[in-house]
Amino acid sequence: MSLPIYLIGARGCGKTTIGQALSQALGYAFRDTDHHLQLTTQRSVAEIVATEGWDSFRARESESLRAVTAPASVIATGGGMVLADVNRHFMREHGQVIWLNAPSDVLADRLERQPEAAQRPTLTGRPIAEEMEDILRERAQLYRQAAHHEVNAMQAPEQVVEHILQSLSLARAS
Ligand SMILES: Nc1ncnc2c1ncn2[C@@H]1O[C@H](COP(=O)(O)OP(=O)(O)O)[C@@H](O)[C@H]1O
Ligand SMILES: O=C(O)C1=C[C@@H](OP(=O)(O)O)[C@@H](O)[C@H](O)C1
Ligand SMILES: [Mg+2]
């Protein structure tokens, strides 16, 4: 059985973009926990957060993680999926977890170019460069704990995919 592959990391690291390319390279299904949430609620992340608050969004995204988990799938998670211990344990137990890591200035630069406000309401109320610095400081340890493999997300998408494939085959061989 081919275990699911979970992509984790902060906003803008490329989980959704790389996840689609990786799923094609492997012939796996592609799932995204935020897309699943959007489809099942018919609301954007920003709408859910505005009407129900972040705690409710976090509960919904945990459900979404369980709902999309299936063999032979690449699963792009939301950047905050690792905040809950149960989600970190769930991903590690059910599949291979890849952390797409990039420094906060690279992430902020990508998010400034392509903000996608409906997908990414502010987390701290601070300007984006400061927000990403704060978020990485707070979460880096959680991404590290959850991940089986860390991949440099600053490279071009094709190279990121290639490095994920390499880490996975190394993992299989060992
Ligand atoms: N490796 C990369 N190099 C350059 N730009 C990237 C890369 N990965 C993603 N991006 C861009 O960064 C933005 C956020 O990507 P996305 O896949 O939505 O990230 P995430 O799902 O992790 O928040 C998009 O505009 C995307 O085109
Ligand atoms: O970092 C976060 O807490 C979040 C990241 C977003 O997903 P992406 O990482 O795909 O942007 C989305 O789940 C939500 O806005 C919360
Ligand atoms: Mg995404």
Secondary structure layout plus pairing:
Elements: E1 5-8, H1 15-26, E2 29-32, H2 33-41, H3 45-52, H4 54-68, E3 73-76, H5 85-94, E4 96-101, H6 104-113, H7 128-146, E5 149-152, H8 157-173
Parallel strand pairs: 1-3, 1-4, 2-3, 4-5
Helix pairs in contact: 1-8, 2-4, 3-4, 6-7
The structure holds adenosine-5'-diphosphate, shikimate-3-phosphate and magnesium ion.
Shikimate-3-phosphate binds next to α1.
Please tell me about this protein's structure.
- The chain is of the alpha/beta class.
- 57% of the residues lie in helices and 13% in strands.
- It is built from eight helices and five strands, in the order E-H-E-H-H-H-E-H-E-H-H-E-H.
- The protein has helices spanning 15-26, 33-41, 45-52, 54-68, 85-94, 104-113, 128-146, 157-173, and strands at residues 5-8, 29-32, 73-76, 96-101, 149-152.
- A five-stranded parallel β-sheet has the order 2-3-1-4-5, sandwiched between helices.
- Helix 1 packs across helix 8 (157-173), helix 2 crosses helix 4 (54-68) and helix 3 packs across helix 4.
- Adenosine-5'-diphosphate is lined by residues 9, 11-18, 76, 110, 114, 153, 156-157, 160.
